[in-house]
Design goal:
Length: 411
């Protein structure tokens, strides 16, 4: 093996960036009379809606909770009310037909877990070269169903893989053509923009789809430690999700309230919201730095014989920096990861196709092999390198050098 200088200390593929200003805001929130259900959360939601360009933003204790509220509200709107939705989950009445949502297998399991929790059947479609859901493959599924006279698909749920927007124009057209909803799991992409042409300033992620979900997990564009949000322009969806978030209770005057439906405690605390509000002010500078660091990787890796960086379109949030390995290195990937760990460079694989997990075995694609070729190839090839705002330009140069040297050992 080569005598490679390790990175100065272990760095994971991502890490939160917390400033003294953030800490001050959290301490101020702790000194407030209300540390839950107060004005800071309301301010955070308003700031999110203003930033993304939507009418409504609803905060949650996680993006997973936000996804549940979205799927449940979507089904409730179709059935008429939340009571009908909850009844459909436990009823054996055949009038409640199972509905489906087309989605990507290259995502974290929460995207699909919450579908199943809300009684939906996920249908996995293949991805494009950038890891994003392929609208052409989605339409193939919709066309086949139309030919069979099936109308069970209610929506498409895309995921902005690594912070790169999906083809928004194509998904909007699909939703209109087949009279379904386009939903976006935008957990990776807060701060990104969808750009159709080089002269286009772009549209911020969050305002493109019928409804979008953001994550504020520690490793995302901004963090509330744990947290998430649901954004939409639909007032009915907003009101239903609001009920689900807080026990199904509607507050009235004084101590009077009414519980009109089943609900949960999915609320975000004032402490978390204060951190989110402080971080949101720095979001654009975070995105700028992530893109500057990514461009150093891009230059260092140009024309190397081992792998190529994932190509981006528009303005990416650069939540991840994935590289795609040349097929001759696929079998060595695990050993490469171990060698990088020895040199203090942490990596991760995003993601194993969901239908390859035991839990999702009943949702394998209905084809000869029960798999999707592009998704499988993407999983074998992808590896995420460290990229976060605690790294500096010289750090990225050093990591890039380590990565290239390690790959040369396996050449």
């Amino acid at each position: 093996m080569k005598d490679i200088t390790p990175f100065k200390s272990f760095t994971p593929y991502s890490r939160q960036s917390i400033s003294e200003e953030d800490k001050t805001c959290v301490l101020e929130a702790l000194n407030n009379p209300l540390i839950t259900q107060g004005k800071i959360n309301e301010a955070f939601e308003k700031a999110l809606a203003n930033y993304a360009g939507t009418k409504y933003a609803l905060s949650f204790n996680s993006a997973t909770s936000a996804l549940y509220a979205l799927y449940a509200s979507l089904r409730a709107l179709e059935l008429g009310d939340l009571e009908s939705f909850y009844h459909s989950l436990v009823s054996k009445d055949t009038n409640f037909k199972t509905k489906s949502i087309i989605t990507t297998p290259i995502t974290f399991s929460a995207t699909t877990n919450m579908m199943i929790a809300c009684g939906f059947k996920p249908i996995f479609a293949d991805v494009t070269y950038d890891g994003n859901l392929d609208p052409l493959k989605c339409e193939e599924i919709l066309k086949e169903k139309a030919l069979r006279g099936e109308d069970d698909v209610i929506a498409i749920m895309s995921v902005d893989y690594a912070g790169n927007s999906v083809n928004a124009k194509a998904f909007k057209e699909l939703a209109k053509k087949y009279d379904i909803k386009w939903l976006s799991d935008s957990s990776h992409s807060l701060g990104a923009r969808y750009i159709e042409s080089t002269n286009d300033e772009g549209i911020k992620i969050g305002s493109l789809a019928y409804a979008s979900v953001f994550s504020f997990h520690a490793l995302k564009s901004i963090t509330t430690a744990e947290g998430g949000a649901l954004l939409s322009d639909d007032p009915k969806l907003y009101e239903m999700a609001k009920l689900i978030r807080s026990h199904g209770i509607t507050k009235k005057e004084l101590y009077h309230s009414d519980q009109t439906t089943l609900g949960f405690n999915f609320r975000l605390s004032e402490i978390n919201a204060s951190l989110g509000l402080s971080q949101l002010k720095k979001l654009d500078s975070f995105i700028t730095k992530r893109n500057e660091l990514a461009s150093i990787y891009d230059e260092a890796f140009k024309n190397n014989p081992y792998f190529y960086p994932l190509k981006t379109k528009g303005l990416s949030s650069r939540h991840l920096y994935p590289i795609l390995l040349d097929p001759k290195y696929h079998c060595a990937k695990e050993d490469i990861v171990k060698r990088l760990l020895e040199l203090n460079v942490g990596t991760q694989v995003h993601y194993k196709p969901l239908y390859d997990f035991s839990f999702f075995k009943d949702y394998k694609p209905k084809n000869e092999h029960g798999l999707l070729r592009n998704a499988e190839d993407f999983y074998r090839a992808t590896l995420s390198l460290p990229l976060h705002c605690n790294l500096e330009k010289e750090d990225i140069k050093h990591i890039a050098s380590i990565v290239l040297d390690v790959f040369s050992e396996f050449n």
